[in-house]
Amino acid sequence: MHLTNTSIQSILPTGILTVDGVKHDFDIIIYATGCDVARDGVGLNAGLHGENGLELKKYWQSIDGPQSYSGTAVPGFPNYFMVLGPNAISGSWGFTIGIQTEVIARLVKEVSIVRNAAADHQMVEYGIGSMQPKEEVFHTQNALIQKTLRTSVSANACW
Question: pTM surpassing 0.85?
Answer without folding.
Answer: no
